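Our example copied in:
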Amino acid sequence: MGKNKIKRSLTHKYRLTIHDENKLLGFNVSPIGLIISLTLSLLIVVGVLYLIIVFTPVGEYLPGHVNEKAREKLIQEVLRVDSLRNEIDKQGRYIANIKAIMSGVEIDSILPPDTLTTKEGYPIEAGEKETKFAEEFEQKEKYNLTSQASTVGALQGLHLFRPTQGMIARKFDANLRHYGVDIAETPGESVLAILDGTVIMSDYTANDGYMLVVQHKQNLTSVYRNCSTVLKKTGDRVTGGEVIATLGEETEEEQQKKPYLHFELWHRGEPLNPEIYIAF
C-alpha cells in the first residue's frame, strides 16, 4: 500500500496556473513529470555549455583551461627561455673568466665560448660599451706597467720555449698598444707551447684567425694569434715545446701576405715584452 500511495502522489496531476491582469495560463503537471523536465533541461544546458567551452574560443578565458595549440606554444616558449638562460649563463662565465685572466688570476679551465663565435658566422660585433671598456682597460694598463726588472725577478727559473721559428717582424710596443711580437714564418710552420699549462681559450675571430690562450704557473698567460689551425681545445693540458697550432699555407691569392704568429705574454694583467724572456 505504501508504494502505491507514493506512486499515486508522484503521478497525480496538479493544475498549475499562471495569470496576470489580462491573461490566464494553466496546465496540468505531475511531480514526476516536473522532475523529468527539470533533469532534461539541466542536461541540455550542461551539454550546450560543454560544446561552447570545447569548440569556441570562450574556453580559453576560463581559469585553468588551455587548448592544445596554446599548450604546445607555451612549452616551446618555456624551452626557449631555458635555452636563453643557459646561453646567458655561459657567456657570463666566459666573460668573468676572461676578466680573471686579464687580472692575473690563475684558473684551471674556462667554458668554451662556442656560443659566441664560429668560423662560418664571424664573431659578434663588439658593442659600444664593450669597445669603451677595452679602450679604458688598455689605457689603464698602459700606465700601470711595473718595471721589467721586478717582473723578470718574479719569473726567474722558468724555461720558456720559443713559440715558433722565424724572425720578429714587429716588436712589442705598449705605447702603440701592440702588446706582443709578430714573428714572420714560413707557411705551415708549427706553433709550440712556451711552458706547461692549460688551454683556457680556443677560438676563432675574423681579425686574428684561430687563437689560443694558455694559462701557466706563476700567473703567466701566453696568447697565440693568427693561427691557421689549432690542435688543442679549451681545457686541454699542454707541455712546454708541444705543438698546439700551425700557421697558414700561402695561397695564390695571398702572395703578398706572409704568414706570421702574433705572440703575447701576460703576467698578472700586465703585458710583457716576450723578447726579454725568450731567445728569438
Notes: The first strand starts at residue 14 and ends at 19. Confidence is low (pLDDT under 50) at residues 108-124, 141-150. The chain has six helices and 13 strands.
